[in-house]
Design goal:
heterodimer; A: mainly alpha; 0% strand; B: mainly alpha; 65% helix
Chain lengths: 336, 253
């Protein structure tokens, strides 16, 4: 490969900028941008009219029942406060999410924005999602447990722009190390197994009821999908939950397997994330005009991509993202 | 689903400012004979006027069908640019990379024009019935009830993606060289040069060639082409326009 700095007729000052602009993006950076895009989508959804109505506060308050008093009381207080100051507080919330999205996308502010992503994610997990209902006994991974915003926070930590472990086999381990990253993965998916096997999800009509409830307010084609899948699970809720739990368990151990097997398990995770997003979450209810966020489906997919085994350098071409991203020109001075 | 009136007013103001900026950029580029992207600036200027009218009824200038025809034509122009870059991809790896750069440059503009056509055609009844201080497309308060809401979601996701991508590019561009990533001819020429094919025929064959018909570009400190007109601000306008459009699309869900 010819070094452009030596061969082209570009003016010197412009060469540097051009090379910087044309560098192949690092997988970690691409994943950070995906997180930024989801935050930005969150922000845009938060500016919807629905969020400026009393329904938003009532929706938050509905996450309190079933939680311990110490968890539920602040949620109730928060929901009441929002109902009294809807315009101001919702605008602040939406703007914070917009700032987080833009901040992650803008390189000089990426650390501050990722830190804010963790803090805001944990805050919303409590005050906005009632800790994902994990303490109520009714949490279902199919409908978003243990909470989409908790996954935002996890991903933000794993995507921290530090490469202390630059030779790690996947992006998630580059900042926190292989052991810690695998532990996060194992605990998360083991929790998914636990929640799936809770008694509330082990009833004959459990899955049917959860899925059919999502059809309300959706466009006809999506409602048809929801009702069709719900019908398939009618009276087979226990079997469905057990199959789902086995799949989650397989995924949990996937990152400890050799790379080819790990990739197969991660593909399973991506497929399940898509199933959860479309069937279990109906795209987060976005198409009803009342969705506050895309829910956990896209986050689960992003979480899985963080663990996609590469060959060490973390370049885009080694990731499944290479299939969906522009084929970048190699950086100046590198060989083909 | 309608939006907040005050927010629509603010965004309409931003769109008008974007229009003024784009027109200014075209004029300054002509007067000072500096490179700029006139097709992009012209489409953005028109788009700003149309979007302001969609957000605030009192700023409405033309019927929705006319605007839809304008943006359909612009979308066809960008689509043709992309197709042309595919058709020219039979050359070596350097040329392919150059054409890829060309395509990636035009994709966001194609998506934005497509989103405009969708918004103008998917909610015509709302647009024609709106009046008073409410938004031109009901974005100031009345329900939208658009057709094909899933398409609105897809376009929203695409625009959010481009906004994030552009924001990342904004921070990657040094102040002295931002236009190189904005102009496909320069990007293409750069890619060609990287592949060891300087002066190859086709897109961006000559990196020091004046852009947009500025035959005698001035020799600046960089020793070659004159710096483009306010390229970072141009990218900021594109980001603002993309984000506003994503918001407008979400209101149609």
């Amino acid at each position: 490969m010819t070094d452009i700095a030596a061969s082209s007729r570009l003016p010197g000052a412009w060469q540097a900028g051009a090379v910087a602009a044309g560098d192949p993006p690092d997988v970690k950076r691409v994943l950070q941008l995906a997180l930024a895009a989801i935050w930005m989508l969150d922000a845009v959804l938060q500016y919807q009219s629905f969020m400026y109505s009393r329904a938003f506060g009532q929706m938050l308050a509905a996450t309190a029942p079933g939680n311990p008093g110490a968890v539920a009381s602040p949620i109730t207080w928060d929901a009441r406060l929002i109902e009294h100051h809807m315009v101001l507080l919702n605008t602040v919330f939406a703007t914070i999410q917009l700032a987080i999205g833009i901040g992650i996308a803008y390189r000089p502010t990426v650390k501050a924005a990722l830190a804010a992503s963790v803090a805001w994610g944990l805050g919303v997990w409590w005050f906005g999602e009632g800790l994902g209902e994990i303490l109520t006994g009714g949490a279902s991974p199919l409908t978003g447990a243990p909470g989409a915003v908790l996954i935002y926070a996890l991903i933000a930590v794993l995507l921290w722009p530090s490469d202390r472990f630059a030779t790690a086999p996947f992006v998630a381990a580059r900042a926190v190390g292989l052991t810690a990253a695998r532990a996060v993965w194992l605990i998360f998916w083991a929790a998914m197994v636990f929640f799936t096997l809770q008694s509330a999800n082990l009833t004959a009509q459990g899955l049917h009821d959860q899925i059919s409830a999502m059809a309300s307010g959706e466009p006809g084609w999506l409602a048809s999908i929801e009702n069709g899948v719900a019908g398939a699970f009618a009276h087979h809720g226990v079997t469905g939950s057990v199959v789902l739990a086995i799949a989650f368990a397989l995924i949990a151990v996937g990152v400890f397997l050799p790379a080819p097997a790990a990739r197969a398990v991660l593909v399973l995770a991506l497929v399940l994330a898509a199933f959860i997003w479309v069937v279990g979450e109906a795209f987060g209810g976005i198409l009803t005009g009342g969705g506050t966020d895309p829910n956990s489906g896209p986050l689960l997919a992003l979480f899985a991509l963080l663990f996609w085994p590469g060959r060490g350098s973390g370049r885009l071409s080694e990731s499944p993202l290479a299939a969906v991203q522009p084929r970048a020109v190699p950086a100046a001075g590198t060989d083909d | 689903m309608g939006g907040q009136g005050w927010l629509a007013d603010i965004l309409a103001g931003v769109m008008i400012a974007t229009t003024i900026y784009c027109i200014t950029r075209i004029v300054v580029a002509r007067v000072t004979r500096r490179p700029a992207e006139h097709d992009v600036d012209a489409v953005h200027a028109v788009m700003g006027v149309a979007m302001a009218g969609m957000l605030v009824a009192s700023l409405k200038t033309l019927p929705a069908d006319v605007w839809a025809a304008v943006f359909a034509a612009a979308a066809a122009w960008y689509a043709w640019q992309i197709v042309a870059s595919y058709q020219a991809s039979g050359a070596g790896s350097g040329q392919r990379a150059a054409n890829a750069a060309h395509r990636h440059h035009h994709l966001p503009h194609l998506a934005m024009c497509g989103a405009m056509v969708y918004m103008l055609l998917a909610a015509p009844s709302v647009m024609s019935s709106s009046n008073g201080s409410a938004g031109g497309m009901g974005m100031g308060g009345s329900p939208m009830g658009a057709r094909f809401p899933f398409l609105a979601l897809v376009l929203t996701l695409a625009l959010v993606g481009f906004v994030v991508w552009d924001t990342d590019r904004l921070s990657r561009l040094p102040r002295l060289a931002p236009a190189l990533a904005l102009n496909p001819r320069v990007e293409a020429g750069l890619a060609t040069a990287r592949a060891g094919l300087p002066s190859a025929a086709g897109l961006g064959a000559d990196l020091t060639e004046p852009l947009d018909g500025n035959e005698d570009s001035s020799e600046g400190d960089s020793g070659g082409t004159a710096p483009p007109v306010m390229p970072r601000l141009a990218l900021c306008c594109q980001i603002a326009m993309g984000a506003t459009m994503a918001y407008m699309l979400v209101l149609m869900l």
